[in-house]
Amino acid sequence: MSEIVVVSGNPRPGSRTQGLATSVGEVVARREGAAPPVVVDLAVYGPALLLPEDPGVADGMATVRAARILVVASPTYKGSYTGLLKVFLDRLPHQGLAGVVALPITVGANPEQAAQSERHLRGLLAELGAEVRPGLAVPESALGDPDLAAGYAATLPVRA
To answer: Does the predicted model carry a pTM greater than 0.90?
Structure first.
């Protein structure tokens, strides 16, 4: 079981969105005395996300379902989180994230756009039964801030 899991919904492998989410997961892991986070980068699955029996996607889903803390990150696409992330999370059953603490992170062109997609992602995670904590909505211009992840995660309540 991976205690802390990062899910990156960016269609580009190794994106800056994923980098930020991984940094948040690492800060939370250190604070909780947990192992470093496991990263599920949805970009590597590509079209396999649409195949019901794909073993790689099934492994990623099993990793997510075993998490205690789930950091879910997405860039803003057309006012919301990515379709890539939605397709993946739609595989979960009703209340599939019950008992999981979720940390939504979104990146947008500006603060308003990032905040809008964070609200959408928060709603999706709550619908899946997660205990959603305050999210992080980041404008692209702030992605280079070395203190961003630590500042967000330092006092975040993550105990279920």
So the answer is: yes
